[in-house]
Amino acid sequence: MKKKKSIRIVLNAPVVLTFCLIAALALAANIITNGMANRYVFSVYRSSLKDPLTYLRFFTHVLGHGSYSHLIGNLMMLLVIGPVLEDKYGSSAILRVILITAFITGLVHFIFFPGIALLGASGIVFAFILLASAMGFRDREIPLTFILVAIMYIGEQIYEGIFVSDNVSQLTHILGGIVGAVTGYIWRKPAKRK
Question: What gap in Å lies between CA 85 and CA 187, rounded to an integer?
Fold first, then answer.
């Protein structure tokens, strides 16, 4: 008699899953501290360059979220797209994309928006979206799907940045998208010769 193989759960995307877990813990810490965690660790804003936390916040702001729905919205997208990217490019490469996106969005926000705090993983979500759509890049070829995604996502953010007044940082989305697009272009595979 043949023994049935058991089903097991595997840790398929350690960087993405760890990021999501830390972001969930950051929200819990923020709730427990009545907003102090986001204020001091999980958001970026203009502060003294003598404060060591200023430099930490360039990276940790992507872990902070203002509410459960804000967190879930970002995590759902990360958990859908992230594992595919991590499987294709590797964990260390995806960690680099997260860190580069966090630093660029944090630094730009620090410089250009001194009176406003920024937090959330939406820049990383947009980096992942554009990186995923760029997976079809080949030498001297640009996938039509990449062009459509770039137009829809970045175009929507430009439109909303100009015409919609909300608490969403469209610039962060655009910068994240640019990081994902550039990374996808750099990591493209040469075309196979027929």
Answer: 12
> What mean pLDDT is predicted for residues 168-173?
75
The CATH number of the structural domain formed by 14-186 is: 1.20.1540.10
Above 60 in pLDDT, residue 6? yes
Note the pLDDT of residue 164.
Answer: 61
Half-sphere CA count of 134, side-chain side, radius 13 A: 24
Per-residue b or e along 91-106, where b marks 16 or more CB atoms closer than 10 Å to that residue's CB: eebbbebbebbbbbbb
Residue ranges per structural domain of the chain: 14-186
Residue 108 has pLDDT above 80, yes or no: yes
**What's the rounded Cα separation, in Å, for the pair 174 and 161?**
10
